Amino acid sequence: MNQYLDLFLNYLLVEKGLAKNSLDSYGRDMIRYLDFLEKRDCGEPSAVRSVDVADFLAHLKERGLAPRSRARALSAVRMFHRFLLVEGYAEANPTAIIEAPKTLAKLPQVLTGREVEALLAAPGSDNAQDMRDRAMLELLYATGLRVSELVGLGVRDVNVTAGYLMTFGKGGKERLVPMGESACAAVSGYLVEARPEMDRNGDNAYLFLTRLGDRMTRQAFWNIIKKWAIEAGIRKTISPHTLRHSFATHLLENGADLRSVQAMLGHADLATTQIYTHVTRERLKRIHEEYHPRG
Predict the structure, then answer these.
(1) What 3-state DSSP class applies to 111?
(2) For 50-81, how does the pLDDT look when each residue is reduced to its tens digit (9 = 90+)?
(3) Distance between CA atoms of 252 and 271, rounded to whole angstroms?
(4) Does residue 146 have an active-site annotation?
(5) Is 63 one of the annotated active-site residues of the chain?
(6) Which is catalytic among the residues 146, 195, 245, 250?
(7) Prediction pTM value
(8) Per-residue pLDDT tens for 31-46?
(9) Does 241 participate in catalysis according to the annotation?
(10) Helix residue spans in 190-239 (DSSP H)
């Protein structure tokens, strides 16, 4: 079956435009699945039955994989068999009647408005590194970018005059995102006063740089946000994604419509964005319980 796996992964790369991380994840799940089929002497697509797929999921459960991991593996297997069917390598899809493992939706960690203000104010000095960190934090909260999108921004991708930036999300999809006044001011100040000090040779096209003039990395920014969270007195364990979650949640709490938030986050499926409506409902429930006399 390995010949079909190579074709499938090439299809995901070329036709679906999957990012490397997603492609690697699909590859790991599929290798595990094909190894399982090999032990059952299922060497051709026509030999695979629904019971084989169900037994594979049961095998993953026995190995201790969480429902979410098993659901992700089934998603990869489903796409693989749909690919085989559409391309004419198989006559049936054995995953058609298989149900996904039930998973409990894990609500994302979000910051309160007060915590966000404290975090954004934490890098308060006028040295170059603080100005850069403040610009990155302001921009992340103002736009809801993924951290990979943030560190991948080029100087030319940001227009502080118009108040928009251009980014490339999952699958290389381009989207235009508004920045807001505070983020524009922070980024503008960084560009004028701090970035020239870091880009000594004047030849780095990336927007955010390290003190040595190299491109900012995801890992480096992860450490930066943890540092400023401690400085701001935030006790929650936060990551760059926490600001993305907070961005979406606070927009919805203040009346933004779901479709607009979906577009700004770059979600292909509205269902992905809908988890933030659960977050806002949970918050309303807590407020009711805390303040209602019979809560």
Answers:
(1) coil
(2) 999 999 999 999 999 888 888 889 999 999 99
(3) 15
(4) yes
(5) no
(6) 146
(7) 0.64
(8) 999 999 999 988 889 8
(9) yes
(10) 195-198, 218-231
